[in-house]
């Protein structure tokens, strides 16, 4: 297992972590500059942040600074209530692949979607099995396109508390079943993003990480689970502040040969997004060395 | 599958559902009277409510009214940071079995506990595997006692969002692995309580219900998953107000021969606990007939 205590060369910052500084939205170029100043070598930006700054501008910045992208957030949201909705998701996902390619991302992260309409509070139906079928079929279609573009797709199993509104793939086992079905030869074109926040509780986690193997372990996201957790979405903790044994999980991944970045992804309306960006990044660096 | 539309003979009220009326704590005898007035034939009371009213008094009320207990809430909380803590949990759980027996409950529901101290916000450690071992061993010890008393134990897999602080058994598969290990001959002494709120998201739910079979399906708890859910613990929805396909899950259970009560268990600080008890019970009856 790699020793992270001496430096932060394997730290990546998911730009949602510093989406806000002192409660105010932060433009992506400012985030990039702040990361570069601290010797952070990789980021994982969100599409809305890239769109706001302009894809060409972000691409230029990334190249100028020699930054790597540990991933691109995010494609997915496949289920829809009608064929037009399914087609619109397909179109949007192909654009996400193109953007990820332009930014030379290591993978496009897929948050696959849940019951159509549920995120807006009005689920079109209650048939989660149907959503799962639509997700499977949607990934199959996108995989053809992504394979041609040379962009790996990383299915991110989301915590079961998001099954209704964000992602109906909720365990590593379920994500890997999709990988086995759609990419049996393990080409590396399809795999998983392991976010400790989503999967730490899973009694089968170690076994499923072993099942995934190096070819399918495309990304590692870290933060921490707080007790109590006061909000289902935006109360993630800084590594070390919660109950997740992050080094143990990283060890399981590295035992399979995973050698990529450890990407910090924290949504925190009540704490970290209220702080100054510099303080948050400095804390990420420190915790990367001590708690990851 | 039983037809619930014509009456509410298979409705049970978990007394937490009307723990408060218009925001004020309601004594258990008042809850019992209100249920009896409406022809509700079964309840599932909580230990703190029973203790406040007095076990003998509650036992008398239950017998007088010919009420059944679809379950007794709850035993469990096995993990501890030291041997004294483990022994204290054992003692308390044996008392819970005795109380359940006195009240002639169908089963004692087990919320097994998570990381010791986490419920108070200070987890003693991050080793969830250790907690799971302690849970396994604790259930094994309690099972001897409960078997002698003739009181079935129902492991309730809790939603993974409670893995840290309330229960580290989080899927039906995991609960049934414990059942298989501790009661291989399927005597009925050990089984599961299926709460749709905790398990609806699980892609393996149908298969695991089939695996459980009649002998291990000891209880069915119902409420609904709201989108959005604003609180991890106390924002459960009334059946029909959320995204869970409750009849489908009940159908899977009844296909295995489950023929018990459908127990309504709703924690709702922001909605149902603010309403009048009578309105809540009447709504439970109506939704039992239309949405369960």
Short recap of the structure:
Chain A is 42% helix and 14% strand.
Protein model, in words:
- 2 copies of one chain form a homodimer.
- By secondary structure, the first copy, chain A, is an alpha/beta fold.
- Chain A has a single domain (11-291), classed as Alpha-Beta Barrel (TIM Barrel), CATH 3.20.20.
- In chain A, 42% of the residues lie in helices and 14% in strands.
- Chain A contains 10 helices and 11 strands.
- Chain A has helices spanning 28-37, 47-53, 55-65, 83-102, 128-149, 172-182, 196-199, 205-216, 246-255, 277-291, and strands spanning 11-14, 20-21, 24-25, 42-44, 68-69, 72-76, 108-111, 153-155, 190-195, 217-222, 262-264.
- Chain A has a 9-stranded parallel beta sheet with strand order 5-4-1-11-10-9-8-7-6. A two-stranded antiparallel sheet of chain A has the order 2-3.
- In chain A, helix 1 runs parallel beside helix 3 (55-65), helix 4 (83-102) packs parallel to helix 5 and helix 8 crosses helix 9.
């Amino acid at each position: 297992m790699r020793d992270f205590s001496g430096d932060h060369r394997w730290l990546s910052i998911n730009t949602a972590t510093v989406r806000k500084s002192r409660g105010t939205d932060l433009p992506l170029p400012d985030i990039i500059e702040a990361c570069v100043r601290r010797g952070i070598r990789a980021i994982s930006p969100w599409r809305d942040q890239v769109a706001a700054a302009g894809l060409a501008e972000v691409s230029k910045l990334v190249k100028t600074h020699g930054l790597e992208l540990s991933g691109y957030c995010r494609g997915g949201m496949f289920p829809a209530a009608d064929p037009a909705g399914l087609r619109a998701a397909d179109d949007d996902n192909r654009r996400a692949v193109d953007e990820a390619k332009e930014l030379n991302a290591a993978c496009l992260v897929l948050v696959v979607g849940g019951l159509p309409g549920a995120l807006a509070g009005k689920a079109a139906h209650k048939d989660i099995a149907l959503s799962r079928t639509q997700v499977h079929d949607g990934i199959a279609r996108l995989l053809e396109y992504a394979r041609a573009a040379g962009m790996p797709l990383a299915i991110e199993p989301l915590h079961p508390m998001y099954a209704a509104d964000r992602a109906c793939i909720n365990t590593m086992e379920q994500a890997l079943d999709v990988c086995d079905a759609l990419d049996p030869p393990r080409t590396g074109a399809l795999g998983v993003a392991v976010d400790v926040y989503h999967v730490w509780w899973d009694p089968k986690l170690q076994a499923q990480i072993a099942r995934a193997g190096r070819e399918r372990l495309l990304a590692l996201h870290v933060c921490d689970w707080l007790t109590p957790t006061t909000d289902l979405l935006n109360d993630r903790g800084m590594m070390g502040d919660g109950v997740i044994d992050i080094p143990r999980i990283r060890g399981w991944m590295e035992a399979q040969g995973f050698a990529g970045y450890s990407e910090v992804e924290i949504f925190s309306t009540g704490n970290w997004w209220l702080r100054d960006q510099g303080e948050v990044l400095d804390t990420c660096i420190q915790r990367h060395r001590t708690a990851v």
